[in-house]
Write a structure and sequence with these properties.
By secondary structure, the chain is mainly alpha-helical.
Length: 239
Amino acid sequence: MDSDSLPPAPRPPSRGASTRQSRQRGLSQAAIIDAALDIIDREGLDALTMRTVAHALGTGPASLYAHVGSKEQLIELVVERVIGEVHFIGEPDPARWEEQLKETAHEMRRVFASHGDLARASFGRIPVGENAMRGAESMMAVLRAGGLSDRVTALAVDLLSLYVMGIAYEDGLARGTEPEQFVDFIAELRSYFESLPADRFPNFVSLAEQLTSGDENTRFEFGLEVLIRGLEAVSKNEA
């Protein structure tokens, strides 16, 4: 085995049939991934089927199975491809590990939000591809550089990824919405909160302005700050 290659990763249960050995000419796994990602970028994850990918490539669905075992595996390959677009931190710096973690979170959000609602495909999946493993390795190195415990480091990778992917998913959904439409919606939402019966919903009424103020970037930064401070606090309590 090449010293730079990874050993075969365990496959999650019920993810479809394994890939058959390729016998098709003029068609490759890379081309299939390209076509699938293009469909997601233009039409969203729900539009992705083996049939729509085959149509985009000018072939039949059966020909794809020589390169990709199932739609589930194709989605995993697309997610792995997109993770490869993320620029993770190179060398962790103990003096600025918090900033590095935030930079990584912003980069992950930017990349996945640029691909429609693809972030939704990361939910419920354990990414074990080369790009995903290198990304998680980078994040764990940064967390350890910050002095966080082994337990907190191991759990934080999943927690931070879930948070970022959740925000990126919402970003992708809102990508086609005009800013003016969103501003109008927020104004209507604030008015709705303020109009609620104060005896039944006192907190909604009194916090109507705070609940509907601040843009998505402000809320994202707030969440990151809460998560990072929380990780530090839990790690110190374990010491």
